[in-house]
Amino acid sequence: MNTATRDFIESHLKDDVRQLALQKFPDDVDKMLVLNQIEARQLLSKKVPSWASNPDLLFPKHLSIEQCSSELTAKYKASIISGGDTFVDLTGGLGIDSYFLSEKFKTSYYIENQKELCDLAEHNFGVLGRKITVVNSDAESFLNDLTSRRDNACVVLYLDPARRDVYNRKMVSLHDCSPDVVDLQNVLLKNSKNILIKSSPMLDISLITNELQNISEIHMVSVKNECKEILIKIEPGFDGEIKYYCVELQPVGTRHALSPQDEMVFQFVESEEKSAIPSFSSTVKKYLYEPNSSLMKSGAYKLISQRFGIEKLHVNSHLYTSDNLISDFPGRIFEVVGFAPFNKKIKKELLKDITEASVATRNFPLSTNDLRKNLNLKESDKNFVFGTTLIGEKKVVILAQRQPVFQDSSLREGRGGLWSY
Predict the structure, then answer these.
(1) Distance (Å, whole) CA 148 – CA 144
(2) 290 in a domain, yes or no?
(3) Nearest in space to 86 (alpha carbons), one of 140, 149, 178, 128
(4) Residues 355-376: pLDDT tens digits?
């Protein structure tokens, strides 16, 4: 990238790429490089801001950027692994995870079978001043090479298997991803003290636990209440209960930050959920609670009720209620304005003055879109409307207002130490 191209990129970073493509470029400016880099940096500006703001870094095609980890989730991964001698990222990609996870290790390897990505990674790691050995190879070949060596034990092996096939369809099975970590798990266990696998949030947790062995931890990681990835931590020889971590990452300073810190974690083991005894309410009380997406993914529906002393509305509704405010609940908290049976009178009575609302359904015969159309409500977060089912199979609509977010740092060690920051 020559100086003219670099300067042109910097002066047009906020331009519409499609409009920019129609313009005539100076002769000493590489047009295709400009368009590609501006688009990439715009995409990365919120996902990996520290990289997007560096004018000396170079980025590949759109798909690699779309599939890469965010800076926030990469830093979280780095926080749950211990450092040591050797770290290997077997599925290098854009190199975001390689960069943030390698900081704790004496020796680090980035493995990638696409030559273009290897060249870009080598350039970018150099710009960033991080010593990472780049190897143009596939995971299987590199692992076979490790197996043949005497000093083959790595502290951490990391994999982020590709979750799309050649037709760009999303994968929902570990066997359908590349590389196939299920087939590779024996050689992975042989070559490492710890294995960390990033998998799709679409994967069912029971599928993961049935197909992989020696799992010590599973982390369901959400950002702004959207489940982004499932992290599977494997330790050779481990045969204890799996620890589950429901993680909500929220950048400090955002509108709905969940705490003064940037992370909230709900931890449990499967036996706790199995033995938990939830409470049920036949009515909707003063406060309504909706678990965050990581908790919903975990399936700890009974334990939520027991641990926070709140009541479920129905065994399948996964909404909770109480008369007293539980301000440190890991999810959205609402103050109930009112509720009524779902019938033709609902619009004239409960919702007579409501024209705008955020609508959601939980265990309800209509979808969210169908209920919004039925109630003739425009999308807005001024009000919140839930369609759900109570004990006794009563279909109801709840009108609620969002509660202020939790800001009391004195409660961080509450719930028996099961909250972590």
Answers:
(1) 6
(2) yes
(3) 149
(4) 999 999 999 999 999 999 999 9
277: which 2 tokens?
């005894």
DSSP state, 393? T
Residue 333, strand partner residues? 289
* Average pLDDT of the segment spanning 192-213: 93
CB 399 within 8 A of CB 383: yes
Q: If you write DSSP's letter for every residue of 66-101 in order, what string do you get?
A: HHSPPHHHHHHHHHTS--EEEEEESS-TTSHHHHHH
- For the cut 60, the answer to whether the pLDDT of residue 419 exceeds it is no
CA distance 322 to 304: 13
- Other beta carbons within 10 Å of 260: 12
Assess contact for 58 and 78: CB atoms under 8 A. no
| Of 123, 42, 68, the residue nearest 34 (C-alpha) | 42
Residue 68's contacts (CB-CB under 8 Å, 6 or more residues apart) are: 47, 48, 93, 94, 96, 97
Cα–Cα–Cα angle for 170, 175, 177, nearest 5°? 40
- Domain coverage including residue 285: 276-402
CA contacts within 13 A on the Cβ side of 22: 4
Asked whether residue 52 falls in the same domain as residue 76, the answer is no
Q: How many structural domains are present in the chain?
A: 3
Q: What is the percentage of the chain residues whose pLDDT exceeds 70? A: 89
Instruction: Outline where 181-231 has alpha helix (H).
Output: 181-190, 205-211
109 class by beta-carbon count within 10 Å (0-12 exposed, 13-18 middle, 19+ buried): buried
- Give the helix, strand, coil percentages of the chain, each rounded to 5: 35, 30, 40
DSSP assignments along 394-410, one per residue:
EEEEEEEEEPPPP--GG
Which of the residue ranges 19-23, 215-219, 416-420 would you say has the lowest mean pLDDT? 416-420
Q: How far apart are CA 70 and CA 152, in angstroms?
A: 30
Same domain (yes/no): 254, 127: yes
Locate 262 and state its tokens: 């940037």
pLDDT of 163 strictly over 80: no
Q: Is residue 416 part of a domain?
A: no
Q: Judge if pTM exceeds 0.85.
A: yes
Q: Rg of the Cα trace of the chain? A: 24
